[in-house]
Amino acid sequence: MHLPRHPAFAALRKYNFPPKDFAVFGSGQLWVRGIRKAHDLDILARGAAWQKALKLGEKKLMIDSGHEYVRLTDGNNGVIEIFNKWVPGEWNENELIDSAEMIDGVPFVPLEKVIIWKRRMNREKDRIDLKLISAYLKIHQPVRRPGRSG
After folding, report:
1. Quick one: which of 41, 40, 25, 34 has its CA closest to 135?
2. For 86-95, 96-105, 110-119, which range has the lowest pLDDT when averaged over its residues?
3. Backbone region of residue 105 per phi and psi (left: phi > 0; alpha: psi in -120 to 50; beta: other values)
4. Class of domain 7-140
5. Is-contact 52 17, C-beta < 8 A?
6. Which of 49, 111, 146, 150 could lock onto 17 through a cystine, CB 3.0 to 4.6 A?
7. pTM of this structure
8. Angstrom distance (rounded) from CA 90 to CA 141
9. Is 14 helix (H, G, I), strand (E, B) or coil?
10. Rg (the chain; Cα; Å)
11. DSSP string of 37-97?
12. Is the model more confident about 52 or about 5?
């Protein structure tokens, strides 16, 4: 699996965040798997990656939760939003980053966690995404065959 050729992914590589301190979350997992395109990348960051984000852009507050984030744009429609907390619900951000799946050298929060998050969000677009993910998994998950007795 390879990263899509899009300015957002090119920008992410350009920023060179330390891979052990961030992971792509949100619809980025869907985008990289070809389930659907997204218009930006949502990043969960900690430690050195979060500190680097703060130096690269202006810290903002999410209206609904009051959590901090940084929005980076590169002029080529590469939009990256970097968060140090993930909402809604209670998440262990360290666990999300530590369990990341490496895809083409970039860490992604596991698809199973994205499914949980989209169920919690329960927006119309999330319900559509969940149907798309379900269809994807029917095709891409290995078939489990019962063991032979004998």
Report:
1. 34
2. 86-95
3. left
4. alpha beta
5. yes
6. 49
7. 0.87
8. 28
9. helix
10. 16
11. --SSEEEEE-HHHHHHHHHHS-EEE-TTT--EEEEEE-SSS-EEEEESS--SS---HHHHH
12. 52
